[in-house]
Amino acid sequence: MRPNSSIDHQPYQICREGKVKMVTNALPPNGGSGTFSYSKNSYFQKLSSSVEERKIEEEIQKKLDVQKLACGSNKIIRVADLGCATGPNTFTNAKKVLEAIKHKYQNQCPNTETTLEFHVLFNDLPSNDFNTLFTSLPHDRNYFTSGVPGSFYNRLFPQSSIHFAYSTYALHFLSKSPEVVQEMNSPAWNKGRIHYTSASKEVVDAYAAQFAKDAAKFLDARALELVPGGMLVIVMPGVPNGMSYSDIVNGLLFDSMGSILMDLSKEGLFDESQVDSFNFPFYAPSPEEMTKVIEMNGEFNIERMELTNPAPWLKSMNQVIPEWIIHVRAVMEAIFTRQFGNEVTHEMFQRLTKELSEKSELVETKHRDKIQILVVLKRKE
Amino acid sequence: MRPNSSIDHQPYQICREGKVKMVTNALPPNGGSGTFSYSKNSYFQKLSSSVEERKIEEEIQKKLDVQKLACGSNKIIRVADLGCATGPNTFTNAKKVLEAIKHKYQNQCPNTETTLEFHVLFNDLPSNDFNTLFTSLPHDRNYFTSGVPGSFYNRLFPQSSIHFAYSTYALHFLSKSPEVVQEMNSPAWNKGRIHYTSASKEVVDAYAAQFAKDAAKFLDARALELVPGGMLVIVMPGVPNGMSYSDIVNGLLFDSMGSILMDLSKEGLFDESQVDSFNFPFYAPSPEEMTKVIEMNGEFNIERMELTNPAPWLKSMNQVIPEWIIHVRAVMEAIFTRQFGNEVTHEMFQRLTKELSEKSELVETKHRDKIQILVVLKRKE
Ligand SMILES: Nc1ncnc2c1ncn2[C@@H]1O[C@H](CSCC[C@H](N)C(=O)O)[C@@H](O)[C@H]1O
Ligand SMILES: Nc1ncnc2c1ncn2[C@@H]1O[C@H](CSCC[C@H](N)C(=O)O)[C@@H](O)[C@H]1O
């Protein structure tokens, strides 16, 4: 595969009519380190990913043959983080993974003098704020660093060059929202909503199909990049098999954002058609769907897959509604801003905090236990 | 060697007295794409480097055993640019180098079906504007990309992982100015000047010693990172053996900047001691000095070393004085600004253009023929 063929992430698509039509697409989270920045508002993701830490360590310990990998690569272990944002979570993740790999190596070769050299490759979209990432690299790190700009739905690394890849809270960003949900004449037209939550079966199916397509591209690329025996770990939002997204606490978020935007359009701030043509490229798959796409790809063995409560420490959502919304804002703001502008987006998030705080009883009824999926794969040898 | 030991570029040094003393140090050129940005003002560097293009292609063709390198690395060729800035020159350089390597491979293996995969690693200081670099990557590139933040005076890449490294117009940036030239009680105190041009022998020697030390660190790191048989190419400002920097056109630049800053301090804008304590970390070595440091290192064969006219197309400097100063400004502004602030720095560059335009006859008398050095090294096998 030639890397140039599809190396870039296209934010726009040309419609058949020749007009440029915006297909909402993943834009990076807020850069820098200000009030609404990702670097300041990502500790929920950190806490949630950390729920999986021990399990990932266990899988490395049991199933990653570090000695063999190191032998085949001049003692250099290459680790990739797919969708790293600006930090700091990515640094914690790298540290934990490297510790586990080192630990396994010491178990395998207790008497060796050679130490491994680690190269960590931080991937995100080209428009991610890599400057913030690079200037906040931990000073005491013991690995070589690279930033790799590009979409993880395409090839990012040379063939068979990565030993361990992980992606936390990134793969729910579709490469774009499905086109049919934006087409007025399609049965899947998603009028008056910005997501598949509470939408028609056609809309849900279109999103599911987009996820299947994107995840397939993701796995195709990783299958080429990972060495045989290499490991791929994914942590992302998920749903129990058969559960609808409107039953899940995050579904409430999308429903509320959609209805607030409809209100704002009725207040005359913009035309309703702006909502009709906007669909947030976010998808949370079930284990069944995940399994299917992995089996279709055929190059990986599933070592572990499970749903977990991402916030077992959280007694009640009501404690954290404003914080939760700031976290959502740090990640999603850019995508809303491109469609609705700064002012509308700001107002939407303000109202969202208020509305969800008022609806706190409804929030409490929603499912929020098993909504994080962990997938551990091994590249077949 | 452990990468963590000296991975970061320290802009400050603690003095023996415990006070933080600024040691002027390489800061990246102006980011973004505005009037004074490097990306808009670096075509002189491009023209100058391109004078060496054919020679580099020749060396690759004659001396780089691409077939052997590719065999030992699963057909992945890793190329590093050390001190890449924000582009666009680095992209042109990468393209030319990759074409030459591909060409050599086709000559060596005319009947092979396998194509090489290229990974280009773009290195610069962590504070370089990598965002501009990443968002301006050529769309039709046929290589995988990484940005590698860190000082090239330290380790940047895993052991034996790079096949070809080059550095154009970057290695004249010392890691810092020599400390003794800033010490009032030292015989090498460089009072009233900002560079070794026209300075005492002690100052010149201190700069030369700093260059020798830095270049040694540079070569030590590259010796570990390059595979045996790998190639290292350096293009940078140089001087003929034995020639003093005040005879060279760039020397006039430093002399004028120094005297303008002294004027500005006399006008009361800042204290003269600010000039005394500032020394620009720029050094242009002679072939003799280069040879010495390479032989001291001992891990490289010198394949080619020569001085060239960097601007054979340029009839007279007077044609280009304002452009020249903007180019200088794009690269050096940040370092002056840290010492003197925005206003003084702006005023200095304004006066510099005026002064050198007025002194155009003097400019013409200065040596500007063989002031670019090309060094082609091969890592011993
Ligand atoms: N197609 C794509 N390719 C690469 N990165 C992507 C992407 N789509 C989304 N992302 C990135 O995925 C990140 C999700 S935020 C999660 C960041 C980090 N892994 C953490 O756990 O905290 C964002 O930085 C976003 O820019
Ligand atoms: N110690 C160091 N490590 C890495 N890069 C350095 C450095 N000292 C200076 N540089 C970088 O070297 C670059 C010099 S400008 C030259 C850029 C490019 N090679 C070209 O030919 O156009 C700057 O971007 C500067 O930040």
Brief account:
Two copies of one chain form a homodimer. Chain A has 381 residues and is of the alpha/beta class.
Topology:
The structure is a homodimer of 381-residue chains.
Chain A: E1 12-14, E2 20-22, H1 43-50, H2 53-63, H3 66-71, E3 76-82, H4 89-108, E4 117-124, H5 130-135, E5 144-149, E6 162-168, H6 201-225, E7 226-237, H7 249-266, H8 273-276, H9 287-297, E8 300-308, H10 321-358, H11 360-365, E9 372-379
Parallel strand pairs in A: 3-4, 3-6, 4-5, 6-7
Antiparallel strand pairs in A: 1-2, 7-9, 8-9
Helix pairs in contact in A: 2-4, 6-9, 7-10
Bound molecules: S-adenosyl-L-homocysteine (SAH) (2 copies).
The site of one S-adenosyl-L-homocysteine has 25 residues of chain B, from helix 1, helix 4 and strand 4.
Largest protein interface?
Answer: A-B, 40 and 40 residues
CATH architecture of chain A: 3-Layer(aba) Sandwich
Q: Which molecules are bound besides the chains?
A: S-adenosyl-L-homocysteine
* Number of helical elements of chain A: 11
The CATH C-level name of chain A is Alpha Beta
Output mean pLDDT of chain A.
91
Using the alpha-carbon principal axes, give the shape of chain A.
Answer: globular
- Contiguous low-pLDDT stretches of chain A (5 residues minimum) are 1-24
Main sheet attributes: strand count, strand direction, barrel closure of chain A: 7 strands, mixed
Oligomer: homodimer
The total count of strands of chain A amounts to 9
Radius of gyration of CA atoms of chain A, rounded to a whole number:
21 Å
Spatial separation of the terminal alpha carbons of chain A? 20 Å
Q: Would you give the CATH topology of chain A?
A: Rossmann fold
